[in-house]
């Protein structure tokens, strides 16, 4: 392009970032820093067998305190930021490694042996290297594959079910357990569900919290339990907060529960104490 003497220089107008985008960017760099300086935490929420009342598993949940306010930022928020920025890959790797390392430590300390469940983002599932990454982590930490469970949401696997089926078979061949998380919120075709080599379904918390107020939530919850059992899968109810919900799930023969009624996610030390205490859940007898 010809330059004309005296012509007006081309001006670039840079709109100021709006406050939202700015705080998002600030969070993103703080999150990157947190990953580099090992400031993320993992907390563990127990899963309880409804027949024995015993803790039979733990879900690892990422926790991050803002470096300045020291308040915990909701995982939904920082996981979304990490997915949008690509940080989900180092973050996911850190979570996997940390959860496996922690579970191995508990085993070495002589605590009851339980699987640890790790949430996997759709972006991680799409990565061809995921199975290798998982087997490397298992080898490095010395954890047996059966002591690791991978949680994928229903939306993640149904986004592209053909590819997900292939990916899930590769993961399954490692020997890890597979769970479908937040079940009931997406649209699963039964035909696909049948082709996913999964071990358990986790009924989404929204159905459990509406059990008492919404008859259709109760219908969906009991249908999912029956369906899972017909397919030979175990079923976990998420977000159990009260006795009424517990009674309902017990009557419906749900296998496991997870929720504040028994315990929220705990820092590793507190979770170890819970395991050591062998505290159990008792389902009080209903009067009616
Ligand atoms: P999720 O995998 O479905 O995890 C269950 C969420 O329900 C957790 O929220 C847990 O604290 C919460 N919860 C459990 N019991 C109750 C209850 O009785 N009442 C209520 N109100 N809530 C309960 P949290 O820890 O805030 O995590 C939210 C979501 O963030 C998780 O949902 C998961 O999708 C995602 N997430 C958390 N950690 C990770 C991670 O390490 N990697 C990935 N990819 N996602 C993660
Ligand atoms: Mg989960
Ligand atoms: Mg869930
Ligand atoms: Mg969820």
UniProtKB/TrEMBL annotation:
EAL domain mapped to chain residues: 24-279
Protein name as it appears in the record: Sensor domain-containing diguanylate cyclase
Organism per entry: Pseudazoarcus pumilus
Covered range of the whole protein: 687 to 974 of 974
